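step: validate -> pass
step: tokenize input -> pass
step: predict -> running
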Amino acid sequence: ENLEVTFTGVAPQGVVNINPNKCSSFVQNYVSFSIEGYENNIFSNGDEITLLAEFNMYYAEDPEAPVVLSVLEKQYTVSGLDVYPSDVSKLDLTTVMSDMYDTANAYVIDRVYSKNTFNGNNIWQYNSDIEVKDLVITPHELIYLQPQNNSGQLNDLVIVYKITYTAYNTKYTENVETYIAVEYIGFTTDEAMTEIKYAGEIEVNYYSMDIANPEEYASFYNKAIGVNTETHIIQTLVLPNAPVASTETATETAAETEVVT
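step: predict -> pass
step: emit ->
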């Protein structure tokens, strides 16, 4: 009586919490509770569990006034856990995708106009007279990484953007095509997978803009996404239209940067 059993966390790593603080002092001092058959204490919605009650090591029975536990076990159904969704089609991702696009835009502007991290051939590196034109960011691929059961990993929604631009100075011209992966990591939804309950973190993958031509895309994909095949179920999704960014001017040059989708 008055034992509180609650379910917290994210399925399939949900946790059952047993709180006897509202029980009698006798129960708090001398009765232990456990879950039958679950050593790791990780659960999903719908799991049926049996809670067991027994005297602990501190209870010494009085032969003249023995105490009997009236209920030794009780069944519960795990519910209400947030989930890493297996299906994101019901979610309104408009705001998330807009934020991901803004993150991509800021990262690309910074990288393209940074002389020390220029993504073309070495002839451009450290040149102070580089000009850039026709910089375009285009959504290329939408991928969802769903954690496999008991992998202990977070989920990850990835948008890969294709980046194209022309770099030039008085002697050379180079057309560059590279890619950036923006990740929305660790977001959860309600059990029906219709509402985001916990907002994830938006990050740019370490391997972004690591190549300078489309023939190397497979290598980029394997390093940024394919490496997760042992821990996640990788799903390629239909990519909706990304938000259109306004024309921006890079801070380090006088060139106007047109960012379109």
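step: describe -> Residues 116-124, 243-261 have pLDDT under 50 and may be disordered.
step: cleanup -> pass
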